[in-house]
Write a structure and sequence with these properties.
Layout: E1 13-24, E2 27-39, E3 44-48, H1 55-63, E4 70-75, E5 78-79, E6 87-90, H2 102-111, H3 117-130, H4 146-159, E7 164-168, H5 176-193, E8 196-200, H6 204-210, E9 213-216, E10 226-229, H7 241-253
Parallel strand pairs: 3-8, 3-9, 6-7, 7-8
Antiparallel strand pairs: 1-2, 1-4, 4-5, 9-10
Helix pairs in contact: 2-3, 2-4, 3-4, 6-7
The structure holds adenosine-5'-triphosphate and magnesium ion.
The site of magnesium ion has 3 residues, from helix 1.
Domain ABC transporter: 13-244
Organism: Rhodovulum strictum
Family: Belongs to the ABC transporter superfamily.
Amino acid sequence: MTVLNDDIRRGEVMIRDLSKSFALKGQRLTVLRNLSLDIAPGESLMIVGPSGCGKTTLLRILAGLDVPDSGEVRIDGAPVLGVGTDRAVIFQEPRLLPWLTVLGNVAFGLEVRGVPRTQACERARRYIRLVGLAEFEDAFPRQLSGGMAQRVGIARALTVQPEILLLDEPLGALDAMTKITMQEELARIWREEEVTMVMVTHDLEEAIYLADRVLVLPGDKGAQVALVDIDLPRPRNRNEARFVKYRQNLMARFGLH
Ligand SMILES: Nc1ncnc2c1ncn2[C@@H]1O[C@H](COP(=O)(O)OP(=O)(O)OP(=O)(O)O)[C@@H](O)[C@H]1O
Ligand SMILES: [Mg+2]
């Protein structure tokens, strides 16, 4: 008997026994080893770990830009076989097209998918408003600050209405103050769009500010991968005692104080 489920869950990620290694100077470098993890629809998962531990590799596999050696990723039950419109990727640099305006850049993803211009612009404007750049829709990338350009990148990713947002250190290139503002923006956008968010960051405070759970990739061969639940009300307060405790806990996992 087939049981039909009315409650179709969207943006659910299932990672099973994922392993990935690369050839390095004639040897195999194992980056991910039998990683299994479920990410719930609408969850915010932050990935932290030392440089070279495999954060970008994992994100690229989720995006369908790279393939694992073994194991699999399923999204809403279907195996990931390549890139798909259910996922949008945001990198550290927004990589905007310099000859297009903000509106042109944000609408671009829709237009290449064949959405008629008026409709594409209408939807693009909604997301430009969401990231707070309504006044700048006619500006060109060279006229924007780093934080503004990254907001355009976020709007562009959201415009195609993905179920899952994959972000690789999206705020890494920003100054400390802009970064905090953008963390607040990301928290708001994630809540309003009800999107599953999987984000790599090297900033432990940023991870605690944004995460439902933090995936800790230790990098060290013998060490265990860990998942840390961040059980704090939102919006979060970086100075609250429990927040500080989480930060100390995460730092200690990397031998930091
Ligand atoms: N295409 C590739 N070919 C060979 N080795 C690779 C390739 N991609 C990644 N690696 C290696 O795999 C390891 C993990 O790389 P990855 O980019 O996933 O690390 P990361 O955790 O994102 O690091 P960072 O914090 O510096 O961005 C590194 O040692 C890297 O050299
Ligand atoms: Mg990386």
